[in-house]
Design brief:
By secondary structure, this protein is an alpha+beta fold. Helix content is 29%, strand content 18%. The protein is built from five helices and seven strands. The strands form two sheets. A five-stranded antiparallel β-sheet has the order 3-2-5-6-7. The chain has a two-stranded antiparallel ribbon with strand order 1-4. Helix 2 (19-25) packs across helix 3.
Amino acid sequence: MTIESEQLRLPKNGPSARIDKWLWAARIFKTRSVASDAIKNSRVTIDDMNVKPSRIIKVGDVISVKKPPITYSFKVLACIEQRVSAKLVPLVYENVTDPKQYELLEMSRISGFVDRQKGSGRPTKKDRRAMDTFVDPTMFGWDDEGWDDNS
């Protein structure tokens, strides 16, 4: 065994692991229950197929995780079931997410005040002013001078 495999604490039952444990151990989700809930809600797929939390994964599997607004893709490099330090995460998986997904994430950050999340409450005065400057009335052909109230 190499030093890395000792640090990764590979399972004794061979190079395989449950997907819910792996997602937690690889630090993709904060807790195992959050990982299980994401799997049950069809946010985690392997080869575009929904899986169950007890699904056994192997080295080389590509796992897609939907965390709105983008879908992350990870290639399994090591099957672990115990959480590792953040320094060892590059030994566990390779991020193979499409660069277009990161562009989508950046666009959603830029226009974050336009598409408000449901349940986030009313826009603040600052949010309204930002929306007003973003949506310029002259953009739609509305002019203060050309507006006729009698039509």
